[in-house]
Amino acid sequence: MACVVARTGRELQRYNMGRRQVVGCIPYRYKNGLDGTVSKELEFLVITSQKGNAFMFPKGGWELDESVEEAASRESLEEAGVLGNVECQLGQWSFMSKSHNTYYEGYMFPLFVKEQLDLWPEKNVRQRIWMTAAKAREACQHWWMKEALDILVERLTSEQNESHDDDACLVSACSLS
Description:
The chain is an alpha+beta fold and about 180 residues long. Helix content is about 25%, strand content about 35%. Strands 1, 2, 3, 4, 5, 6, 7, 8 and 9 form a 9-stranded mixed β-sheet that branches. The longest helix has 20 residues, at about 145-160. It is globular, with a radius of gyration of 16 Å. The termini are far apart.
């Protein structure tokens, strides 16, 4: 069984030169066809903010007792209720927090969704919606997450064109810089 409550507090938060380090995922899947087959059409999962008035991808603090991949997976479970394969890092961004007026260091990863849970830690404070890439890009409030989505779409499109295996880019095969 996965965690039943979301982590709280900032005692274990990672910082780099005064910047809080946060990690997020862009959950994605291939849309199911009407006949039950899996199509090549991609869908991306966005969630609402805790206050429910903005869309984004799951993200949160990277803590001292976990790897960056573990943090990305945990945030996707806590905020979006999805489990899957964390894939090769999409990039690293520096951005200003609107609420804390400080700079953050953000890392984004694709998460190929294998399971969507009916119950998850933040179910009562967030909504989740599957969208096309274009709609997800339009809905997402953070510029750096939109850039990460663009990178992911380009990566997945080029992989489809090259007929690569879906699991070819798992984190274990990647070198994170």
